[in-house]
Amino acid sequence: MKSKPSLFQRGVNLWALFSRLLDALQPLALLLARLYVAQVFFLSGLTKLRDWGTTVALFTDEYKVPLLSPQLAAFSGTAGELVLPVLLVLGLGGRFAALGLFVVNAVAVIALADIPPAAMQQHVFWGALLAGLAVFGPGKWSLDALVVPRLFGTK
Fold first, then answer.
1. What is the pTM of this model?
2. pLDDT, tens only, 138-149
3. 3-state secondary structure (DSSP) of residue 141
4. How far is CA 40 from the centre of its chain?
5. How far is CA 116 from CA 26, 106, 124, 148, in A?
6. What is the pLDDT of residues 101-128, one digit of tens each?
7. Where are the domains of the chain?
8. Cβ(78)–Cβ(55) under 8 Å?
C-alpha cells in the first residue's frame, strides 16, 4: 500500500509544478520585455528624426553628451534608437542590442542634468529590463535561438 505524501512533500510537488509553469512562461516574458523596451526607444528615435533641427539644438543646449560633438551625439543616439530596437524585437544579436540600448539609456541619464524623479524611475526600469535581456538573452522565441545553433552547430 502506498503511503499518502506528507504535507511537506505535497508543498514541494506544488512548488515544482509552479516552477515548471514559470519556466514555460519565460519565452513569453522575454518577448514582452523586448517588445516593450524596443517600442520606447524606437518611438524616441522617430521623434528625433521628425524634427532634426530641434534634435541637434537639444543636443547642443540641453543634452551634454561627454566626448562627442552635439551633431555626432544626435546622430549616434538617433541611429541607436532606430536600429537597436529592431534587432531587439527580432532577437537578432539580442544581447548586443540590449547592451547597446542600455548604453543609450545610461548616456541619456548622464547627459540630462535635471532629470525629474518620475523620468528617472522610467530610465531605471528600462535599464533593468535591458540588463536582464543582456544577461539572460532574448529567449527561445528569437532569431538568435533559431539561427545561432544552425550557424555554429551549437545547441
1. 0.89
2. 999 999 999 988
3. coil
4. 10
5. 33, 15, 12, 41
6. 999 999 999 998 789 999 999 999 999 9
7. 26-152
8. yes
